[in-house]
Amino acid sequence: MAIHNDFGKKAEDLAVEYLLKNGYKILVRNFRFQKAEIDIIAEKDGIVAIVEVKARSTDAFMLPQEAVTKTKIRSIVSTANHYLEEFNKQHEVRFDIMSVLPDDKGNLMIEHITDAFQAFDAN
């Protein structure tokens, strides 16, 4: 596996660990529909959180969450709709981003941005 893939997997694992510690139930990881994928689908307090994990080795060019473009949002929303229909979920839905960056000592730091975007942001 390429180094960037290892880093991305490590970031997703860290995000799952963070969510579990904060009372979320992980419903599914890496849910795929057509060519799109949702990194994590979790639930807490009756809300389904659709979570996009973005990791970077540096923030010199942009913050990880800035890489979530309108095209990516459309893809996430479409895939989330498919998941909700397939599993007959009637819950409130929220779209989150988890940003992962190393600190100055190389430790991975995570920022959970709740309600990072709305489905209508895809338009």
From TrEMBL:
Protein name stated in the entry: UPF0102 protein BCF50_2656
Organism: Chryseobacterium daecheongense
GO molecular function per UniProt: endonuclease activity; nucleic acid binding
Superkingdom of origin: Bacteria
HAMAP family attached to this UniProt entry: UPF0102
UniProt signal peptide: none
Keywords annotated in UniProt: Endonuclease, Hydrolase, Nuclease
InterPro entries cross-referenced by the UniProt entry: Restrct_endonuc-II-like, tRNA_endonuc-like_dom_sf, UPF0102_YraN-like
CDD domains: PoNe_Nuclease
Stated family: Belongs to the UPF0102 family.
The keyword Nuclease is assigned to this record: yes
